[in-house]
Structure formats: structure tokens, C-alpha cells
Amino acid sequence: MHDADRTPSRRAFLDATGGALAAGLLAGCTSDSTIRPDRPVPSAAATLAPVAATGRHQAGVTLPRSAQRNLLAVVADLGTTVAPGPLLAELGETVRALTAGSDPRLLGLPPGDLTVTVGLGPRLVRTAGAALPGAADLPRFSRERIASGARGGDLLLQICADDPLLPPVAAAALLDRAGDRVRERWRQSGRRGTDVPVAKGRTAPRNVLGFIDGIVGPHTAAERERDLWLAGPASVAGGTLAVLRRMEIDLTRFAALSVAEQEAVFGRHRDSGVPLSGGTVASGPELGAKTPDGRYLVPVDAHVRRANPTVVGVGHMLRRSYSTDEPAPGLLFISFQNDLRTFTATLARMDASDALLPFTTTTASASFLILPGFDRQHPLGSRLFD
Ligand code: HEM
């Protein structure tokens, strides 16, 4: 970054005119009066509403309300003699500086809606308490082809932003701060397609299979208290549990199906997201509904039937997945829930017969305790390790 870029005049210019310029750009106004080659045009990130890094919960789970378009998940291990408490506190400080735009390692990029969500793997959680939520490892499931380096890990940095440049730059800053106390284990980037409105004030993106993904979940405050956020013990209250699964998808084989066959795999219409049993995109599938000749409208092996929380007997998980193209097309499935069984019981039921699973191979897998929110007075991780 050039020194001139740090001068107050440039910042003052952006502050004073960024909104007006953005409004002009968004309105499609490109007249000479709004874009001048001698003046910097704010990037999209400069005009996005910032997401507070501090509070009762970490950002990047329910905030921002529509997940940002780009993600980088970095999973690292801690050296065996590293004390987690000070490291987490320092990472929290760096997260605050990055999201405030005051960390020079951002190289002058406006932070926009950048969020960093920090999680702890089971090994580290066990050092704080063997019975704590997040202390248990994920079991193995079918259709896994996971190299040992892509299973588990001590530390998750989930970094999301609308600006695709920000996640790798923020990751480099965080890893720099951690220094030789951590060793990177695996990383995965992902993107989300255009958001589609699915209910009042709620959107969900399409995934690489063309289907709207992320419709059902704990969306009301009451559902989130019940199924998403950990209520206790005090050291983890306000946190949650994350599951990450990189699932490669055989796109060629899926695309060879007719649209009706593709819809039967999921149990929803591809175009609209409406369940095959009818209603609106926001409706839950009516699993008992049948055709006049007695066949279920939502087939017995449809994904939405196999994964239905009531049928599985678990709470709702908040799915915040990203599509991938490296190392192969697929989905970085990400779910947040306050009970690991919500995930494990669902996948166990899918494993038995889910029309979607034969198109997938899982190549990375991990679970994390997402630490409760933090602020200046209560550093990240302090309730667990102080
Ligand atoms: C390649 C992998 C996957 C893809 C492409 C995928 C896609 C979808 C889509 C399109 C829907 C329907 C719309 C919605 O409610 O969002 C859905 C629903 C759902 N999925 Fe997945 N999914 C995948 C893997 C998983 C896994 C591994 C789990 C958990 C173990 C899971 C759990 C759920 C749940 C709980 C629902 C809501 C079911 C309902 O109540 O209607 N999915 N998924």
C-alpha cells in the first residue's frame, strides 16, 4: 500500500462520497459526473455494511443475514505445547482489527462485510473439559474418501466476504499472527450463487446442482435459541457446533437425469424450490401427501424426506454451505447446531437410503466448537481457558 493511500484526505473522500457514488453506480448511473478517472471509485466492499465482530455470538453464523458470496475455511493444528488461551485472545484482536479495517496486513482493502468465525476442534475442547459440547469426534460415514490430513483439526478459521480478495488476505494475516504456534492442515474455498428470495426477509442461494439450498433451518429467534446456540455450560454459552464436510458431486451423472428425476432426488422443484407436495418455497414438504394411485409425492428416498428433522427426531441445523470447484465440483457443506447428534443422526439416516448420496464423495470432514462471542473486555476463548 502506498503511503498516499493512507492519507486522511482519501479516507475522508471515501467516507463522504462513497455512499453517494455507490448509489449512483447501483442505479446504473455512469455519467461523467459520477465517475472520474482522477478519483478512486470505491470497490463493492467499501460500500457493504460492516458486520460487527463482537457481541454475544461470533459473526459468520447468522450474520450477515444473507451469507457473503465467498468463503475460505482454514483448518490448522496447534503445537502440543501451545497454550490455546493467549493464542485465541490474539486471534480475536486480529479479527477485530481486520474487520475494522485497521490492520495493515489488509493491504488497504476495505473490509466491507468481512467476518471471521473461530472454532476449536475436539482435541482442544477436551483439554478444557471432556464432557463439553464439541469434545466428541465425528464418527465415520459411508462414501468417505478422506486423506488423514483432511480429517479433523484443532482450529477453524471460517472467513467470509463478498469481496473474493478478502478471505485469503485475512487468512494470511491471521496465520501470520499465530506464527509457528499453528500448522495449517487443510483449507477450502467456496462461493455462493445468486441469492433467491425464499421468505419475507430471507434468501438462499442455488448450489452447483441448480437447486435452492438452505431453505429449511432455525430461522426465528426462538428456533435459534432452541436448536442453534449453546445454552450452557457458561464457558460455551452463546457458541454453537459446526460441521464441515467437503462433498464432491458427480455433476455429469446428475445432469444426465431428466429434470423430474433430479427433482425426485431432492423432493423439491428445481426452478422454484417448492416441495413436490406443493405449497410455496417456504413450505415444509408434506411427507404424507400421495398421488391418486398411492405413490408419495415426495419419494421415499428424496433428500428432504431422509433429512427431515422431525422424521430423524432432531432439532434444526442451520446450513450455510458453499459450492466448490476445487479440487472438484461439489459442496462445502457447513452446518451449525447446538447438538452434534442433529448432524450425526441425520447423516446416519441419509446413509441408509438417500437418493442424493450416491452422487457424492466426502473428501474432508471436521467438527468444531464455535466459541461464544467476544469483545474487548472478554477476549475470544477467555471463558474456556482462563
Ligand atoms: C452434496 C451434498 C448436499 C446437497 C447438494 C444438499 C442440498 C440440499 C437441498 C437442495 C435441500 C432442499 C432445500 C433446503 O431446505 O435447503 C436440502 C435440504 C436439507 N439438507 Fe441437504 N444437501 C447436501 C447434504 C446434506 C447433508 C450432509 C446433510 C446433513 C447430514 C443435509 C441436511 C439437510 C437438511 C436437514 C435439509 C432440510 C430437510 C427438510 O426438512 O426439508 N444435507 N439439502
What would you note in describing this structure?
- By secondary structure, this protein is an alpha+beta fold.
- It folds into 2 domains: 9-42, no CATH class; 43-385, no CATH class.
- It has 13 helices and 11 strands.
- Strands 1, 2, 3, 4, 7, 8, 9, 10 and 11 form a 9-stranded antiparallel sheet that branches.
- Strand 5 (195-199) and strand 6 form a beta hairpin.
- The radius of gyration is 22 Å and the shape is globular.
- The protein starts with a helix and ends with a helix.
- The relative contact order is 0.17.
- The model is unreliable at 1-33 (pLDDT under 50).
- Protoporphyrin IX containing FE is lined by residues 207, 209, 211-216, 245, 247, 249, 266, 268, 284-285, 303-304, 307-309, 317, 331, 333, 343, 346-347, 350, 356, 360.
